């Protein structure tokens, strides 16, 4: 099983990246899946111009990103909340693809510097993912006051409590991935 983790913030001093690193470390240490860590800051995509399927000559980065999403059994998106919404870097890659997101199990971890843990970003992000046919996992992982909760290596201040929450969150993602894989196998046998 492969889980792609998308670290969606690209701004200087991003702290949601710390949570993405935590999940990478936790999944690998627990042997839950193979991790494909996708840091959108490394791509530096230009502003969205067109969906991949309509691009006459997509860049190598666009093709690479699309292939990584296709090969992932599920995706864990870690996003900060910016003024009640999610960053343009994430909106860019959500809109870039279409068929690649269809029925893809996606778990959401939201992060904020304030007390609400990115709760407001859920509405707009879930709606966008739903509109393109992604399967949003019915579990959330919210991180409030991220600057007080994790360090830059992804180590949580409350490791025991964080690991307990992560375990339940990732069990839900893994369940959805396994269910999706069984449905795809059944559909393939029927055709």
Automatic annotation (TrEMBL):
One of its GO terms (molecular function) is oxidoreductase activity. Residues 1-145 form the NADPH-dependent FMN reductase-like domain. Gene3D superfamilies: 3.40.50.360. InterPro entries: Flavoprotein-like_sf, FMN_Rdtase-like_dom, NAD(P)H-dep_reductase. One of its GO terms (cellular component) is cytosol. This is FMN reductase.
């Amino acid at each position: 099983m492969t889980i792609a983790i998308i670290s969606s913030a690209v701004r200087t001093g991003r702290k949601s990246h710390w949570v993405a690193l935590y999940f990478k470390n936790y999944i690998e240490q627990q042997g839950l899946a193979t991790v494909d860590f996708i840091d959108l800051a490394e791509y530096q995509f230009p502003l969205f111009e067109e969906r991949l399927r309509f691009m006459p000559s997509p860049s190598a980065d666009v093709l690479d990103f699309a292939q990584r999403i296709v090969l992932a059994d599920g995706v864990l998106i870690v996003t900060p909340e910016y003024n009640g919404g999610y960053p343009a870097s994430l909106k860019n890659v959500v809109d870039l693809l279409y068929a690649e997101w269809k029925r893809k199990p996606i778990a959401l971890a939201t992060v904020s510097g304030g007390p609400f843990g990115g709760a407001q970003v859920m509405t707009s992000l879930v709606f966008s993912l739903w509109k393109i046919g992604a399967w949003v996992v019915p579990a959330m992982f919210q991180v409030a006051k991220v600057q007080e909760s994790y360090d830059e290596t992804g180590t949580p201040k409350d490791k025991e409590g964080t690991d307990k929450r992560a375990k339940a969150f990732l069990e839900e993602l893994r369940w959805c991935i396994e269910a999706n894989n069984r449905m795809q196998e059944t559909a393939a046998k029927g055709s």
